[in-house]
């Protein structure tokens, strides 16, 4: 009894649109988790600065940067699967524009809340809570918009690894 061996040729799979990049739901969950970590860093900074008497504008601006820096590294690597040195023109600059819009919303809402609380003579812990709610509200409002822009514009095209030296 002879064995028949068959060999079948398999066509190579076409490249996926986001090869090397986590699937959409994974990216969304990971970006959300990264955002939660960034928000925690921002919250500690914001509350601390407000407690020490900083203006709402200065406190929210510094707090935003305190969260944005770690978020860049965590989200870029974990949510979008990016490694290596980022391309300044195609990745870093668009990222800065997107988060700049988020920063404007955070600082703007916190500054507005500060302007509203002054004439109402809301002070101390209550004022910090009101300013913090305004700051957090901007994060909630901006997250979906920011994720969509990052996912579709900044990090489109999959896992691009740029060489460390040029």
UniProtKB/TrEMBL annotation:
Pfam families attached to this UniProt entry: GtrA_DPMS_TM
Membrane protein topology class: Multi-pass membrane protein
Keywords: Membrane, Transmembrane, Transmembrane helix
GO CC entries: membrane
GO biological process: polysaccharide biosynthetic process
TM regions (residue ranges): 31-52, 58-75, 95-116, 128-149
Annotated InterPro entries: GtrA_DPMS_TM (IPR007267)
Main location: membrane
Subcellular location, record wording: Membrane
UniProt domain GtrA/DPMS transmembrane: residue ranges: 35-153
Record-given protein name: GtrA/DPMS transmembrane domain-containing protein
